Amino acid sequence: MEFKLALLAVKDVKVSKKFYTELFDQDVILDLGWNVTFSGGFGIQQNFGWLTGLSEESIIKKSNNMELYFEVENFDDFISKIKSYSDIEYLHPPKKYDWQQRVVRIYDPDYHIIEIGESMKVIVRRYLGEGYSVEETAEIIQHPVEFVRMVEDNVIL
């Protein structure tokens, strides 16, 4: 068995397609009109109730029980970009976690949670560039030493 993708139920596929292509730089891999697959390994589906045989009332808006997770190389640039979209609803403003990753969570047009985090590779490279050892960096970012070494050795690009 092979997992293919996560599928989000959307009200208006055109609005959601624009949101993900413009804001998240997702390429459309397959566009069937009412169903769109993106390069990031997820898809959107209009008329989900019809497709699944569920009633429209049973499709819960803003359920807050899952999220799509993206990482960006330049978090500050992304925050500037997102500020140009006046209709974005934030779950929370940008914040920094104990493992030194900055993140922001927003809702997409159908109120699915989207998390955008600063790339952990960027964070590793920042600490190593500041002279911290692999072990110190691993402790600071709360990741295994092996992860830090793989980033250092460019095994994880």
Quick structural gist:
This protein is α/β, with parallel strands linked by helices and about 160 residues long. The protein contains six helices and eight strands; from the N terminus they run βαβββαβαβββααα. It starts with 5 loop residues before the first strand and ends in a 5-residue tail after the last helix.
The ordered string of helix (H) and strand (E) elements is EHEEEHEHEEEHHH
Give the strand line-up of the largest sheet: 1-4-3-2
Which fold name corresponds to the CATH topology of the domain at 1-55? 2,3-Dihydroxybiphenyl 1,2-Dioxygenase, domain 1
User: So what's the overall shape?
Assistant: elongated
Radius of gyration: 18 Å
CATH superfamily of the domain at 1-55: 2,3-Dihydroxybiphenyl 1,2-Dioxygenase, domain 1
- Which class of the domain at 1-55 in CATH terms? Alpha Beta
Instruction: Tell me the major beta sheet.
Output: 4 strands, mixed
Percent helix, as a range, is 25-40%
Could you tell me how far the N terminus lies from the C terminus, measured between alpha carbons in angstroms? 28 Å
Strand content: 25-35%
What is the count of DSSP helices, taking H or I runs of 4+ residues?
6
Q: Enumerate the spans where pLDDT stays under 50 for 5 or more consecutive residues.
A: none
